């Protein structure tokens, strides 16, 4: 799986200037979703964000994501562990899965916007996802043993395993468990276009 960020646009706008606010407001006229991520409240303090989306007049989805939760004493913490700067979360899976959960929420909110003609706010949190993830507990050894038997060189990942190593290890593990020869998962002829009636 390769996440290429296709369709993503980056802009640099000074939201502290009048010109920047006008430029940003013009961009908002052409949008469906505004994402306020990892720096909770920053866009709101500049006069945009959740309040603008849900305060009437905004017919778009405003989604927020942070490490903690969107409310309470820790709702305004920035980055990871309260650092002044943004930081990558330690668990790659939770970071990616929180994005997936947010995308599902945004998709549902867009559907609601069409059906009910109303704006909607979506909040996601890495910490909340991690809590849910940890609640799942570990698999029983009898469930894990057959999987481990397919790859005797399987390495347990640690918190500092980088994404490139993780992807490489995943591909190697898949090749071992599913095979790479004829009619196996990575056999190129399996990836052909077939006309459907």
From TrEMBL:
One annotated GO molecular function: catalytic activity
Pfam families referenced in this protein's UniProt entry, alphabetically: CoA_transf_3
Superkingdom of the source species: Eukaryota
Transmembrane segments: none
Similarity comment: family membership: Belongs to the CoA-transferase III family.
The name this protein goes by in its record: Uncharacterized protein
């Amino acid at each position: 799986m390769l996440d290429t960020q296709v369709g993503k646009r980056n802009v640099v706008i000074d939201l502290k200037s009048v010109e920047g606010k006008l430029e940003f407001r013009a961009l908002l006229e052409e949008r469906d979703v505004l994402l306020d991520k990892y720096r909770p409240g920053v866009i709101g303090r500049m006069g945009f964000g959740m309040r603008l989306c849900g305060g009437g007049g905004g017919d778009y989805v405003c989604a927020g994501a942070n490490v903690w939760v969107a409310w309470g004493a820790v709702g305004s913490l920035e980055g990871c562990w309260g650092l002044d700067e943004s930081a990558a979360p330690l668990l790659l899976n939770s970071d990616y899965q929180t994005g997936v959960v947010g995308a599902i929420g945004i998709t549902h909110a867009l559907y609601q916007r069409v059906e009910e003609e109303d704006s909607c706010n979506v909040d996601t949190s890495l910490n909340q996802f991690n809590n849910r993830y940890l609640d799942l507990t570990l698999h029983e050894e009898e469930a894990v043993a057959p999987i481990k038997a397919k790859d005797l060189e399987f390495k347990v990942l640690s918190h500092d395993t980088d994404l490139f190593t993780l992807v490489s290890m995943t591909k190697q593990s898949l090749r071992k468990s599913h095979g790479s020869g004829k009619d196996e998962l990575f056999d190129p002829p399996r990836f052909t276009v077939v006309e459907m009636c």
